[in-house]
Amino acid sequence: MNFVIVLVALLGSVWLLAVIEGWTTTGRLRLTAPLLSGLAYLGRESIVPRTPDRVFFETAPVLLLIVAVLGAAVLPLAPTLVIADLATGALFINAALAYVLVALIMAGWGPNGAYAMIGGWRFLGQLIAYAMLIVMPITAVAMRAESLVTTVIVGSQDGLWNIVYQPLGFVLFFIAAMALAFRAPFDLPTAPGELGGGVDAEYTGVRLAVLRLARLTLVITLASATTVFYLGGWHGPLLPPWAWSLIKTLAVAVSMLLAGRYLPRIREADLMRWCWILGIPLALLNIIVVGLLVLVVP
Question: Where are the transmembrane segments (predicted)?
Fold first, then answer.
């Protein structure tokens, strides 16, 4: 039963996010826009490149969607509303999302096209750097909760959310989540102005529909992880716990969409340099500060 409820909540969140994305792009708020877009994709011809690696080409969009759903499986909407309350849930999220890299490398290699391949290799460097900014803030969150169980992590924020307890960790995790979801200004794997879509360039029809559904699902999963780790999860007044989880998740997801509209795309060399020179030292500093707070503050 939990599986069905969480899946429906995930699909509903993706639908609303697609509506909001369409509104920010076209200026028109239409609840039927995702349905119309989906039907339009289904009506288009699915063109296959001339000499593709067919296994990689066909598997990449589906794998990206599966990875996004797997990550959401350990994120609770309420104290008892979670698909899998694993003892190592926080680490499972990081492990599952690592396969985003595999999916994008496959999407870049499969079509045997120059732009797609460049996009896939760009994401390789991007994820190698920013994956550290996913796991290191999670480490600090687990230190405070003294557990890797996601429901326990949310419970540890009953009196004080982690965004207040460790704001530096929140900022680093949010930036890394945007990089992992390859949203602007971290959209180097797609880069419409440079690569003509990059890893998306050779996909059309149903395949492109699945790929874009997977991208939105990935944003929702990362927004939900941000909510669980830093925004108190289901904690909030008056409304049911699941409602607070969904409201916070959508707020974070929308902020990811809007941030890219006002920030220029970053050069890949600068993106890597900022992470290794600035991001990782700050993540280490965050772990040290949280460790001291855990020791000193009862």
Answer: 55-78, 90-111, 123-143, 163-182, 216-236, 242-263, 275-297
Whether 172 and 279 have beta carbons less than 8 Å apart is answered as: yes
What are the respective helix, strand and coil percentages of the chain, to the nearest 5? 70, 0, 30
Residue 75 burial class via C-beta count within 10 angstroms: exposed 0-12, middle 13-18, buried 19 and up: buried
Tokens representing residue 69 in the block:
């759903």
Phi, psi for residue 78 in degrees, rounded to 5: -155, 170
Question: Are 229 and 153 a contacting pair, CB within 8 Å?
Answer: yes
Dist CA 146 CA 156 (whole Å):
9
Provide the pLDDT for residue 131.
85
CA separation for the pair 211, 41 (Å, rounded): 11
User: Domain segments of the chain: what residues?
Assistant: 2-296
Which phi and psi (to 5°) does residue 81 adopt? Answer: -110, 80
For residues 185 and 263, is the Cβ–Cβ distance under 8 A? Answer: yes
Instruction: Tell me the pLDDT tens digit for each residue of 77-136.
Output: 998 889 988 888 899 998 888 899 899 999 989 888 888 888 888 888 888 888 889 999
The dihedral of CA 8, 228, 76, 60: what is its sign?
A: positive
250 token code pair = 């959508």
CA distance 131 to 221: 15
Residue 168, judged by CB atoms within 10 A of its CB (0-12, 13-18, 19+), counts as: middle
Per DSSP, the three-state class of 278 is helix
Q: What is the pTM of this model?
A: 0.94
Structure tokens at 262: 């006002």
Residues pairing with 81 in the sheet: 78
145-189 pLDDT, tens digit per residue, is 999 999 999 999 988 999 999 999 999 999 999 988 888 888 888
